[in-house]
Prior knowledge:
The protein is an alpha/beta fold.
Amino acid sequence: MSALPETIAAPGLDSARFARHLSQRSTLPAWWLETKKAAWNQFNALPMPSRTDETWRFSNISSLDLSGFDLPDDPASRIASPTAFPAAAEIIFSNRQIAARSAVPADLLAKGVIYCPLDEALRDHGDLVKTYFQKLPANLGSEKFVALNTAFTAAGAFLYVPKGVEVALPFVLQHTLSGTNKSVFPHTIVALGENAKATLVEFFVSADKDSRQLVSGVNDLHAGPGAQLTYVGAQNWSRDTLAFQTNSIVAERDSRVLSLNIHLGGRQARHESHSRLLGSGAHSEMLALTVADGSQEFDQRTLQTHVSPHTTSDLLYKNVLLDTAKTIFSGLIIVEPDAQKTDAYQKNRNLMLSDTAEANSLPGLEIQANDVKCSHGSTTSRIEPEQKFYLQARGIDPTNAHELLVFGFFEEVLGKLDNDDLHAALIALIKTKFKK
Protein backbone atom coordinates (compact mmCIF):
# COMPACT_ATOMS: atom_id res chain seq x y z
CA MET A 1 0.00 0.00 0.00
CA SER A 2 1.24 3.47 -0.82
CA ALA A 3 2.71 5.70 1.87
CA LEU A 4 0.59 8.41 3.40
CA PRO A 5 1.36 12.01 2.37
CA GLU A 6 3.02 14.28 4.85
CA THR A 7 0.79 17.21 3.89
CA ILE A 8 -1.25 18.56 6.79
CA ALA A 9 -4.76 19.34 5.56
CA ALA A 10 -5.82 21.14 8.70
CA PRO A 11 -4.99 20.99 12.41
CA GLY A 12 -6.96 18.05 13.76
CA LEU A 13 -7.65 16.41 10.40
CA ASP A 14 -4.00 15.74 9.56
CA SER A 15 -2.02 12.75 8.31
CA ALA A 16 -1.57 11.37 11.83
CA ARG A 17 -5.31 11.50 12.49
CA PHE A 18 -5.98 9.83 9.14
CA ALA A 19 -3.49 7.06 9.88
CA ARG A 20 -5.19 6.40 13.21
CA HIS A 21 -8.61 6.34 11.51
CA LEU A 22 -7.27 3.87 8.93
CA SER A 23 -5.70 1.59 11.56
CA GLN A 24 -9.04 1.34 13.35
CA ARG A 25 -10.46 -0.22 10.16
CA SER A 26 -7.62 -2.57 9.32
CA THR A 27 -9.98 -5.58 9.21
CA LEU A 28 -12.03 -4.10 6.34
CA PRO A 29 -11.39 -5.12 2.70
CA ALA A 30 -8.08 -4.11 1.17
CA TRP A 31 -9.78 -2.33 -1.74
CA TRP A 32 -11.63 -0.10 0.75
CA LEU A 33 -8.45 0.86 2.60
CA GLU A 34 -6.71 1.64 -0.68
CA THR A 35 -9.72 3.72 -1.76
CA LYS A 36 -9.47 5.72 1.44
CA LYS A 37 -5.75 6.29 0.96
CA ALA A 38 -6.28 7.46 -2.60
CA ALA A 39 -9.02 9.81 -1.42
CA TRP A 40 -6.74 11.28 1.24
CA ASN A 41 -4.09 11.93 -1.40
CA GLN A 42 -6.71 13.52 -3.65
CA PHE A 43 -8.01 15.74 -0.85
CA ASN A 44 -4.53 17.06 -0.14
CA ALA A 45 -3.79 17.58 -3.85
CA LEU A 46 -6.96 19.47 -4.73
CA PRO A 47 -7.05 23.21 -4.01
CA MET A 48 -9.72 24.90 -1.98
CA PRO A 49 -12.43 26.64 -4.07
CA SER A 50 -11.59 30.14 -5.27
CA ARG A 51 -13.57 33.17 -6.39
CA THR A 52 -12.77 32.38 -10.03
CA ASP A 53 -14.37 28.92 -9.94
CA GLU A 54 -17.60 29.03 -11.93
CA THR A 55 -19.03 26.15 -9.87
CA TRP A 56 -18.70 28.36 -6.77
CA ARG A 57 -20.21 31.48 -8.27
CA PHE A 58 -21.96 33.66 -5.66
CA SER A 59 -20.66 31.44 -2.80
CA ASN A 60 -18.91 32.89 0.22
CA ILE A 61 -15.47 31.39 -0.35
CA SER A 62 -13.73 33.24 2.48
CA SER A 63 -15.70 31.35 5.14
CA LEU A 64 -14.65 27.85 3.98
CA ASP A 65 -12.34 27.30 6.94
CA LEU A 66 -11.48 23.65 7.71
CA SER A 67 -8.95 24.40 10.47
CA GLY A 68 -9.29 23.09 13.99
CA PHE A 69 -11.75 20.25 13.38
CA ASP A 70 -11.29 16.72 14.69
CA LEU A 71 -13.24 13.47 14.73
CA PRO A 72 -15.33 12.70 17.81
CA ASP A 73 -14.30 9.52 19.62
CA ASP A 74 -17.10 9.41 22.17
CA PRO A 75 -20.86 9.15 21.59
CA ALA A 76 -22.88 12.32 21.83
CA SER A 77 -23.86 13.15 25.38
CA ARG A 78 -27.31 13.97 24.10
CA ILE A 79 -28.93 12.43 21.05
CA ALA A 80 -31.55 14.41 19.20
CA SER A 81 -34.84 12.54 19.30
CA PRO A 82 -35.60 10.87 15.98
CA THR A 83 -38.71 11.98 14.20
CA ALA A 84 -41.15 9.17 14.96
CA PHE A 85 -43.19 7.42 12.29
CA PRO A 86 -43.62 3.75 11.32
CA ALA A 87 -40.42 2.36 9.79
CA ALA A 88 -39.16 -0.93 8.39
CA ALA A 89 -35.88 -0.58 10.32
CA GLU A 90 -33.80 2.20 11.90
CA ILE A 91 -30.12 2.95 12.41
CA ILE A 92 -29.11 5.91 14.59
CA PHE A 93 -25.52 7.14 14.73
CA SER A 94 -24.16 9.32 17.52
CA ASN A 95 -20.78 10.91 16.82
CA ARG A 96 -19.96 8.19 14.25
CA GLN A 97 -20.97 5.37 16.59
CA ILE A 98 -24.15 3.29 16.54
CA ALA A 99 -26.44 4.56 19.30
CA ALA A 100 -29.54 2.54 18.42
CA ARG A 101 -30.63 0.05 15.83
CA SER A 102 -33.72 -1.98 15.05
CA ALA A 103 -33.57 -5.29 13.22
CA VAL A 104 -34.73 -5.75 9.66
CA PRO A 105 -37.95 -7.83 9.77
CA ALA A 106 -37.38 -11.55 9.24
CA ASP A 107 -39.55 -11.71 6.13
CA LEU A 108 -37.43 -9.01 4.45
CA LEU A 109 -34.19 -10.73 5.47
CA ALA A 110 -35.49 -13.94 3.94
CA LYS A 111 -36.01 -12.07 0.67
CA GLY A 112 -32.43 -10.84 0.67
CA VAL A 113 -32.90 -7.28 1.95
CA ILE A 114 -29.75 -5.83 3.51
CA TYR A 115 -29.84 -2.76 5.76
CA CYS A 116 -26.84 -2.27 7.98
CA PRO A 117 -24.04 0.14 8.93
CA LEU A 118 -21.47 0.68 6.19
CA ASP A 119 -18.57 -0.94 8.09
CA GLU A 120 -20.68 -4.05 8.62
CA ALA A 121 -21.67 -4.13 4.96
CA LEU A 122 -18.01 -3.86 3.95
CA ARG A 123 -17.14 -6.86 6.12
CA ASP A 124 -20.10 -9.05 5.14
CA HIS A 125 -21.02 -7.84 1.64
CA GLY A 126 -17.83 -6.18 0.41
CA ASP A 127 -18.21 -7.10 -3.25
CA LEU A 128 -21.79 -5.81 -3.33
CA VAL A 129 -20.77 -2.51 -1.72
CA LYS A 130 -17.93 -2.15 -4.22
CA THR A 131 -20.42 -2.51 -7.08
CA TYR A 132 -22.33 0.61 -6.03
CA PHE A 133 -19.81 2.74 -4.11
CA GLN A 134 -19.17 6.01 -5.97
CA LYS A 135 -20.16 4.40 -9.26
CA LEU A 136 -19.88 7.80 -10.94
CA PRO A 137 -17.58 10.67 -9.91
CA ALA A 138 -18.61 13.94 -8.30
CA ASN A 139 -18.39 16.83 -10.75
CA LEU A 140 -20.31 19.83 -9.41
CA GLY A 141 -17.50 21.59 -7.54
CA SER A 142 -17.13 19.77 -4.22
CA GLU A 143 -14.68 17.09 -5.35
CA LYS A 144 -12.26 18.06 -2.58
CA PHE A 145 -14.91 17.60 0.11
CA VAL A 146 -16.12 14.32 -1.40
CA ALA A 147 -12.53 13.06 -1.18
CA LEU A 148 -12.43 14.13 2.47
CA ASN A 149 -15.64 12.17 3.04
CA THR A 150 -14.18 9.01 1.49
CA ALA A 151 -10.99 9.34 3.50
CA PHE A 152 -12.74 9.67 6.87
CA THR A 153 -16.15 8.09 6.38
CA ALA A 154 -17.23 5.66 9.07
CA ALA A 155 -20.82 6.53 9.93
CA GLY A 156 -22.83 5.35 6.99
CA ALA A 157 -25.35 2.77 5.91
CA PHE A 158 -25.95 0.32 3.10
CA LEU A 159 -29.45 -0.53 1.87
CA TYR A 160 -29.89 -3.24 -0.75
CA VAL A 161 -33.29 -4.42 -1.96
CA PRO A 162 -33.13 -7.36 -4.39
CA LYS A 163 -35.04 -7.89 -7.62
CA GLY A 164 -38.81 -7.82 -7.28
CA VAL A 165 -38.92 -7.00 -3.56
CA GLU A 166 -41.18 -4.16 -2.44
CA VAL A 167 -40.89 -2.65 1.04
CA ALA A 168 -43.90 -0.61 2.14
CA LEU A 169 -42.48 1.15 5.20
CA PRO A 170 -39.45 3.47 4.94
CA PHE A 171 -36.01 2.69 6.28
CA VAL A 172 -34.75 5.41 8.65
CA LEU A 173 -31.19 6.60 9.20
CA GLN A 174 -30.10 9.37 11.58
CA HIS A 175 -26.73 11.04 12.14
CA THR A 176 -26.29 13.06 15.34
CA LEU A 177 -23.21 15.20 15.93
CA SER A 178 -22.27 16.93 19.19
CA GLY A 179 -19.28 18.83 20.49
CA THR A 180 -17.45 21.98 19.44
CA ASN A 181 -15.01 21.66 16.52
CA LYS A 182 -16.18 18.13 15.79
CA SER A 183 -16.75 16.67 12.33
CA VAL A 184 -18.57 13.78 10.74
CA PHE A 185 -18.47 12.23 7.26
CA PRO A 186 -21.57 10.10 6.60
CA HIS A 187 -21.81 7.98 3.45
CA THR A 188 -25.01 6.20 2.48
CA ILE A 189 -25.50 3.72 -0.36
CA VAL A 190 -28.95 2.68 -1.59
CA ALA A 191 -29.21 0.04 -4.34
CA LEU A 192 -32.49 -1.31 -5.66
CA GLY A 193 -32.59 -4.32 -7.94
CA GLU A 194 -34.88 -4.76 -10.93
CA ASN A 195 -38.52 -3.86 -10.14
CA ALA A 196 -37.72 -3.36 -6.45
CA LYS A 197 -39.35 -0.60 -4.40
CA ALA A 198 -38.15 1.12 -1.21
CA THR A 199 -37.86 4.41 0.67
CA LEU A 200 -34.97 5.68 2.78
CA VAL A 201 -35.35 8.69 5.09
CA GLU A 202 -32.11 10.20 6.39
CA PHE A 203 -31.85 12.82 9.14
CA PHE A 204 -28.76 14.94 9.85
CA VAL A 205 -28.93 16.78 13.18
CA SER A 206 -26.72 18.49 15.75
CA ALA A 207 -27.28 17.84 19.42
CA ASP A 208 -25.78 21.27 20.17
CA LYS A 209 -27.56 24.31 18.81
CA ASP A 210 -24.60 26.65 18.34
CA SER A 211 -21.44 24.48 18.22
CA ARG A 212 -18.89 24.98 15.46
CA GLN A 213 -18.97 21.77 13.39
CA LEU A 214 -17.90 20.38 10.01
CA VAL A 215 -19.89 17.89 7.94
CA SER A 216 -19.24 16.35 4.54
CA GLY A 217 -21.80 13.75 3.48
CA VAL A 218 -22.19 11.65 0.34
CA ASN A 219 -25.01 9.49 -1.00
CA ASP A 220 -24.95 6.93 -3.81
CA LEU A 221 -28.53 6.22 -4.93
CA HIS A 222 -29.03 3.53 -7.58
CA ALA A 223 -32.35 2.39 -9.06
CA GLY A 224 -32.14 -0.72 -11.23
CA PRO A 225 -34.45 -1.40 -14.20
CA GLY A 226 -38.07 -0.78 -13.28
CA ALA A 227 -37.22 0.04 -9.66
CA GLN A 228 -38.96 2.74 -7.60
CA LEU A 229 -36.71 4.57 -5.15
CA THR A 230 -37.74 7.37 -2.81
CA TYR A 231 -35.04 9.19 -0.85
CA VAL A 232 -35.69 11.92 1.73
CA GLY A 233 -32.79 13.76 3.37
CA ALA A 234 -33.47 16.37 6.05
CA GLN A 235 -30.72 18.34 7.77
CA ASN A 236 -30.94 20.52 10.85
CA TRP A 237 -27.30 21.09 11.77
CA SER A 238 -26.16 23.63 14.37
CA ARG A 239 -26.18 27.33 13.57
CA ASP A 240 -22.38 27.29 13.21
CA THR A 241 -21.97 24.22 11.00
CA LEU A 242 -20.12 24.23 7.69
CA ALA A 243 -21.88 21.48 5.74
CA PHE A 244 -21.38 19.81 2.37
CA GLN A 245 -23.67 17.14 0.93
CA THR A 246 -23.21 15.42 -2.43
CA ASN A 247 -25.87 13.12 -3.88
CA SER A 248 -25.35 10.90 -6.93
CA ILE A 249 -28.50 9.42 -8.48
CA VAL A 250 -28.49 6.67 -11.12
CA ALA A 251 -31.76 5.74 -12.82
CA GLU A 252 -31.74 2.75 -15.13
CA ARG A 253 -34.34 1.65 -17.69
CA ASP A 254 -37.98 2.36 -16.68
CA SER A 255 -37.00 3.22 -13.10
CA ARG A 256 -38.41 6.08 -11.05
CA VAL A 257 -36.44 8.02 -8.46
CA LEU A 258 -37.88 10.72 -6.21
CA SER A 259 -35.37 12.62 -4.07
CA LEU A 260 -36.44 15.28 -1.58
CA ASN A 261 -33.92 17.27 0.44
CA ILE A 262 -34.88 19.62 3.28
CA HIS A 263 -32.40 22.26 4.44
CA LEU A 264 -32.85 23.98 7.80
CA GLY A 265 -29.58 24.19 9.73
CA GLY A 266 -26.00 25.27 9.25
CA ARG A 267 -24.11 28.52 8.96
CA GLN A 268 -23.12 27.70 5.41
CA ALA A 269 -24.53 24.61 3.73
CA ARG A 270 -23.82 23.44 0.18
CA HIS A 271 -25.85 20.67 -1.45
CA GLU A 272 -24.98 19.10 -4.79
CA SER A 273 -27.18 16.59 -6.59
CA HIS A 274 -26.49 14.93 -9.93
CA SER A 275 -29.19 12.75 -11.47
CA ARG A 276 -28.11 10.53 -14.37
CA LEU A 277 -30.81 8.90 -16.49
CA LEU A 278 -29.03 5.96 -18.07
CA GLY A 279 -31.86 3.84 -19.48
CA SER A 280 -34.84 4.43 -21.74
CA GLY A 281 -38.00 5.22 -19.76
CA ALA A 282 -36.14 6.36 -16.65
CA HIS A 283 -37.61 9.22 -14.59
CA SER A 284 -36.02 11.40 -11.92
CA GLU A 285 -37.88 13.87 -9.71
CA MET A 286 -35.60 16.21 -7.77
CA LEU A 287 -37.20 18.23 -4.97
CA ALA A 288 -35.87 20.52 -2.25
CA LEU A 289 -37.24 22.79 0.48
CA THR A 290 -35.14 25.37 2.31
CA VAL A 291 -35.88 27.76 5.19
CA ALA A 292 -33.05 30.28 5.44
CA ASP A 293 -32.94 32.87 8.22
CA GLY A 294 -30.43 34.95 10.15
CA SER A 295 -27.23 35.10 8.09
CA GLN A 296 -27.41 31.54 6.78
CA GLU A 297 -26.18 30.67 3.29
CA PHE A 298 -27.63 27.70 1.38
CA ASP A 299 -25.88 26.82 -1.86
CA GLN A 300 -27.64 24.31 -4.15
CA ARG A 301 -26.08 22.93 -7.35
CA THR A 302 -27.86 20.39 -9.56
CA LEU A 303 -27.33 18.49 -12.78
CA GLN A 304 -29.88 16.45 -14.73
CA THR A 305 -28.02 14.37 -17.30
CA HIS A 306 -30.11 12.55 -19.90
CA VAL A 307 -28.04 9.84 -21.54
CA SER A 308 -30.70 7.60 -23.09
CA PRO A 309 -33.79 8.37 -25.21
CA HIS A 310 -37.33 8.58 -23.81
CA THR A 311 -36.22 9.76 -20.36
CA THR A 312 -37.88 12.38 -18.16
CA SER A 313 -36.84 14.54 -15.24
CA ASP A 314 -38.53 17.21 -13.16
CA LEU A 315 -36.83 19.53 -10.67
CA LEU A 316 -38.57 21.84 -8.21
CA TYR A 317 -36.50 23.66 -5.57
CA LYS A 318 -38.30 26.03 -3.22
CA ASN A 319 -36.57 28.46 -0.87
CA VAL A 320 -38.00 30.69 1.85
CA LEU A 321 -35.71 33.53 2.97
CA LEU A 322 -35.86 35.71 6.07
CA ASP A 323 -33.57 38.31 7.67
CA THR A 324 -30.23 38.60 5.79
CA ALA A 325 -30.13 34.99 4.62
CA LYS A 326 -28.77 34.03 1.21
CA THR A 327 -29.60 31.21 -1.19
CA ILE A 328 -27.93 30.12 -4.42
CA PHE A 329 -29.46 27.79 -6.97
CA SER A 330 -27.45 26.75 -10.00
CA GLY A 331 -28.98 23.98 -12.10
CA LEU A 332 -28.24 22.54 -15.51
CA ILE A 333 -30.10 20.10 -17.75
CA ILE A 334 -27.81 18.20 -20.14
CA VAL A 335 -29.31 16.22 -23.00
CA GLU A 336 -26.71 14.05 -24.70
CA PRO A 337 -26.83 13.38 -28.49
CA ASP A 338 -28.52 9.97 -28.22
CA ALA A 339 -31.14 11.12 -25.71
CA GLN A 340 -33.91 11.87 -28.21
CA LYS A 341 -37.48 12.29 -26.91
CA THR A 342 -36.18 13.68 -23.62
CA ASP A 343 -38.70 15.61 -21.51
CA ALA A 344 -36.99 17.64 -18.80
CA TYR A 345 -38.12 20.50 -16.58
CA GLN A 346 -36.41 22.62 -13.97
CA LYS A 347 -37.81 25.31 -11.70
CA ASN A 348 -36.50 27.29 -8.74
CA ARG A 349 -38.96 29.36 -6.71
CA ASN A 350 -37.95 31.81 -3.97
CA LEU A 351 -40.28 33.35 -1.40
CA MET A 352 -38.80 36.50 0.15
CA LEU A 353 -39.93 37.28 3.69
CA SER A 354 -37.34 40.03 4.15
CA ASP A 355 -36.14 43.07 2.24
CA THR A 356 -32.52 42.27 3.13
CA ALA A 357 -32.38 38.60 2.06
CA GLU A 358 -30.67 37.57 -1.19
CA ALA A 359 -31.72 34.85 -3.66
CA ASN A 360 -29.53 33.93 -6.65
CA SER A 361 -30.84 31.65 -9.37
CA LEU A 362 -28.96 30.31 -12.41
CA PRO A 363 -30.99 27.67 -14.31
CA GLY A 364 -29.58 26.42 -17.60
CA LEU A 365 -29.92 24.04 -20.56
CA GLU A 366 -27.32 22.22 -22.67
CA ILE A 367 -29.11 20.32 -25.41
CA GLN A 368 -27.26 18.16 -27.93
CA ALA A 369 -30.28 16.32 -29.38
CA ASN A 370 -32.89 17.76 -31.76
CA ASP A 371 -36.12 16.03 -30.70
CA VAL A 372 -36.61 17.01 -27.07
CA LYS A 373 -38.87 18.99 -24.78
CA CYS A 374 -36.94 20.97 -22.16
CA SER A 375 -37.66 24.10 -20.16
CA HIS A 376 -36.41 25.90 -17.10
CA GLY A 377 -37.47 28.84 -15.02
CA SER A 378 -37.00 30.82 -11.85
CA THR A 379 -39.33 33.05 -9.87
CA THR A 380 -38.68 35.29 -6.90
CA SER A 381 -41.64 36.85 -5.15
CA ARG A 382 -42.78 38.42 -1.93
CA ILE A 383 -45.84 37.74 0.16
CA GLU A 384 -48.85 39.61 -1.10
CA PRO A 385 -49.71 42.33 1.43
CA GLU A 386 -53.34 41.24 1.31
CA GLN A 387 -52.40 37.73 2.46
CA LYS A 388 -50.39 39.01 5.40
CA PHE A 389 -53.08 41.53 6.34
CA TYR A 390 -55.76 38.84 6.17
CA LEU A 391 -53.90 36.63 8.66
CA GLN A 392 -52.88 39.42 11.05
CA ALA A 393 -56.38 40.86 11.01
CA ARG A 394 -57.50 37.57 12.50
CA GLY A 395 -55.10 37.83 15.41
CA ILE A 396 -52.22 35.82 13.98
CA ASP A 397 -48.83 37.30 14.90
CA PRO A 398 -46.24 37.89 12.12
CA THR A 399 -44.13 34.82 12.98
CA ASN A 400 -47.08 32.44 12.84
CA ALA A 401 -48.36 34.17 9.73
CA HIS A 402 -45.01 33.56 8.05
CA GLU A 403 -45.19 29.91 9.10
CA LEU A 404 -48.64 29.41 7.62
CA LEU A 405 -47.64 31.04 4.36
CA VAL A 406 -44.45 29.00 4.19
CA PHE A 407 -46.31 25.71 4.52
CA GLY A 408 -48.77 26.77 1.88
CA PHE A 409 -45.76 27.48 -0.35
CA PHE A 410 -44.12 24.14 0.50
CA GLU A 411 -47.18 21.91 0.12
CA GLU A 412 -46.68 21.61 -3.63
CA VAL A 413 -43.53 19.62 -2.82
CA LEU A 414 -44.57 17.83 0.37
CA GLY A 415 -47.78 16.72 -1.30
CA LYS A 416 -45.76 14.54 -3.67
CA LEU A 417 -45.03 12.10 -0.83
CA ASP A 418 -47.51 9.23 -0.66
CA ASN A 419 -46.69 8.36 2.97
CA ASP A 420 -48.96 10.41 5.24
CA ASP A 421 -46.95 9.65 8.39
CA LEU A 422 -43.74 10.83 6.75
CA HIS A 423 -45.50 13.91 5.40
CA ALA A 424 -46.65 14.85 8.92
CA ALA A 425 -43.21 14.17 10.41
CA LEU A 426 -41.49 16.46 7.93
CA ILE A 427 -43.98 19.26 8.59
CA ALA A 428 -43.28 18.92 12.32
CA LEU A 429 -39.53 19.10 11.65
CA ILE A 430 -39.81 22.22 9.49
CA LYS A 431 -41.94 23.88 12.15
CA THR A 432 -39.04 23.67 14.59
CA LYS A 433 -37.30 26.29 12.44
CA PHE A 434 -39.91 28.84 13.51
CA LYS A 435 -39.59 28.15 17.23
CA LYS A 436 -37.31 30.66 18.88
